[in-house]
Write a structure and sequence with these properties.
The protein has one helix and six strands; from the N terminus they run αββββββ.
Length: 163
Amino acid sequence: MSFPSNSAPPHRKPWTASAIRFRIAATLAAVAFVLIVLGCMSFSIGGKTVIRTPDGNPFEQSGAIELRPGAEQDVYYAIPYALTPNLEIDSTFDDVDLVDQHPDHFRVRNTSNGLLSRTVEWKARGVKGLPPAPNSVVPPQPAPVAPSNPPPPPAPVPYTPDH
């Protein structure tokens, strides 16, 4: 079997414009897919902030609360944090959402549709803030009162001219 000298063999087709466009489109689609996957993983370079306490250990508080179905509740830390702490919440069926978080409290919501309440365990770690101010109010200082027995006026001293 003989082939014309100016054509490719039948098992190899020459590059056409449509084949080149297809390869470029496939490459762009693969790059876009990789970027989307990395973006969904919150892939970031740098920007990590680490705050260390003087003793090297974060201040930790933990507790548990009971939530009725569909209920929201604010949970206040006994001692607030200087900044918003790292908070871990855990429930048996993972049907509790963290709604809001601040250095002194957080809010959780029970999203279950059942009739039973859920126990939510939480653990917060972070930099310890200032303790809450005491609830006692300092009474105002009384105004100074004039004495009831004023001291006697000074006695007159006789004047004698020197001659």
